[in-house]
Structure formats: structure tokens, C-alpha cells
Amino acid sequence: MTTSTPLREGGPPAAALRPGPARDKRRRARRRGNTIALLFALPALTLLGALVVYPVLFSVGRSLFNASGDHFVGVDNYVGMFQDPAILKAIRNTAVWVVVAPVLLTGVGLVLAVLVEKIRWATAFKLLLFMPMAVSFLAAGIIFRLAYDQDPDKGVLNAVAVGVHDTFSGGSPYPTAHARDGQGLVADSGGYRTTAAVPQGRTALLGMVGVLPANLPPDAVAAAGAASLPAAPGELRGVVYLDFTPGGGGRQGQVDPGERGMPGMEVKVVYDGRTAATARTGPDGSFRFTGLPRSDYTISLPASNFAPPFQGVSWLGPALVTPSIIGAYLWIWTGFAMVLIGAGLSALPRDALEAARMDGANEWQVFRRITVPMLAPVLTVVFITLVINVMKVFDLVYIIAPGPVQEDATVLATQMWLVSFGGGNNQGLGSAIGVLLLLLVLPAMVINVRRTRRSR
Question: Which fold has domain 76-160+314-454?
Fold first, then answer.
């Protein structure tokens, strides 16, 4: 007598539902693999928890306490954070960084990646631009702190600026010169003028001090001869000289034998408040005007003769400190953006580019309508990565910005350090700034992770 295994209605036999030895073996192998994988990942997970998860949770909890950490204050630190002018300025500066730096870097990196493809020594050029990535932010900050120095003898940028400025406009010949009191000259709008009108046919002696004899131009000669020449009828003459006799002696207001003229000085004659004529002094400091209508004139030495020399641009002043630091950041990260975009560019299908060129598109049209749209995923990744990076910038701001303008250049990362450890000693408020910085970075990180998963 045979017995049949009852069948379930609409399903397999009941015996087939019971796990067999082969299925149990596969399950044990899978569990063993998962256990081994977990053991291998355990050190990384431990470090992740100790260095990331725990500090984040601790910072969130610490932000709810006061400066000393012994009194719960709730969200008071977060409210006070948006009432502190220094922190609000840090938020504004961080917004400037996020808007300006990633856009410039992505654009410059794209242009360089496209251009590098068209030169012979592409690899050497990429290496040259990528080299700043090997320099630490500390060293880069020191380099640019020196490059931006206000003193042209130290700061290379101001040395170039001063050189270009002096090439086209020149400098003031005697910035330290000034007139003696009571010797016929009075200050006038940064320059000097005679106290009394000078009639034609007379030689005016205009003595100056405040200049070392060694600093006179090399072509300066003795002024005594010019001072002794009488003025012709209808002629207005004068001498601008250094009223100082080397070795002592001499008379004030008189041209002594050892005193030299001051060449290159601009001189104007003024009548009724208007300039009638202009001249420049010769090597002996002499000047003369002829053909003037008969009258008495005021002689003026304009302020341009005494203006201080151009000292360059105040790169690290309150107005330019943030753009200057962003410039240093661009120098470091341009190679990174170029290499990543160049890698994406090398993976583009060349047939699409060649087809566009065969259809009559020029290089600008190919770049704008084909290259850029096809590189959009790579450009997005580079842009978001740079956004995350600039939100955390600290080293460059702290090192490059001088102490007096540190507050003008501060960003959230530096402000968090200053509030917590740099003199503020308020870890509660500093933790609140850290939590705010984390919340600002999270959206960009989420977007980057999602885009990476979709690209797999």
C-alpha cells in the first residue's frame, strides 16, 4: 500500500517547503561571510564612531549648556549666535566663499582642462598646476602672507604694483621736503606758496629743508650761481634749493656756496587764483618765466612735489582681505579642479565632438553646446566637493589675515575656534557654531552621495 504526500492547493508539496541540507549550508556560508565582513569593518566602524559620531553627538549636547558646561541653557546659544555681530559677519563671509570660490574654481578648471588638451606639453602643464596641492595650507598661508605684504620690499605683489605705477605715473621727487617757517613760504593745499606777491624782474629764493643732501638727485648742482643772476626786465626768476649747508654754518633764507638746487620741482605762477604758467626747475634749482603780462604773481610749489610715494595696494586691508584669501585658495585648488574635469573630458565620446565640427560648428559652439552639457555630471561633483571644502576653510584665513583685520576675514570655522579656544573660552557657543556648520555641510554631502550612487 502506497501513501501519497498530500499536496497543498496551488502550491508545492509540503516536503519541498522544508529546508534541505544544501539550503542550510548556503545560509551558514552567508552568515559566516557576513560575520567575517563585519570583523574586517569593525576597526573602521570603531574609528568612525570615535572620531565622527561621538564628537558630533557630544557637540550637539555641549551646545545646549553654558560656557562652563555646568548649566543647561537649551537653545540660548543658538539664539545668541544670530545676535552676535562677529558671528553674523562670519556667516556672511562664508556665504561669499561658497558663492565665489567654487564657481571660479569650476570655471577656471573647465577652461584649463579644455585648453590643456590642445597643447603639446599637456602632462607637464598639468603637473605644474597640480603642484600647489602638495603644499600644506599652513605653508601656502605663509607664502601668501608674505606675497601680500604692504611693504614693496617684502610683498612681491606690491613690488609689481609699485613698479607698474611708477613706470607710467612716476613718483613725487621730494616727499619729505618742507619749507622753513618765516622764510617766505606758507603751506597751501598740500604744497607751498609765497606769502607775498613777487614782482617781475626779481629772483625769488625758495629754500626747503627735510631732505638729506645724499638723497638729492645725482644731477643736482650748486644753486649759488643761479641765485646771483639778476632777472631781466619782464622776467620772473627763482631758485628752489636745499637750505642746508653740510657741516653746519650758513644763513637761513640765503643761498650759501655749499647748498645745491632741487631739480625737477614743479613751479607755478598764479595770478588772481588762476595758474598763469608752469615750469620745472633745472639741475641748479632755477626756473624762469618770460612773456608774462606785467604784474605781481604768487609762486606756488604744488602738492605733487611732496606727495608720499605710492606704496602699493592694501591687499590685507578690511576691503580686500577676503578676496585676497580666496585668491590664495584658487592657487591651491585650481589644479585639483582641472585634473578632475580633464579626466571627465577624456572620457567623452569623440564622435559627438567630431560630428559637430563636421556639421560646421566652431570651437566655441562645440564647447558651449556639447562639451559643457556632457560634462555636467563631472562639473556638479567638482562644484559640490568644493562647496563642502570652502565651508570648512580655516588655515588660510587664520594665517593670512593680520590680527587687526581678522574679524573682517573671519568665517564660521575660524569663528568657532576663536569663540571656543582663541580667547572666548565659550565651548557652548562654539559647539553651536560647529553644529550650524555641520547642518550647512550636510545638504551638499547628501547631494554628492546620491549623485555618486546614481552614477554606478
Answer: MetI-like fold (1.10.3720)
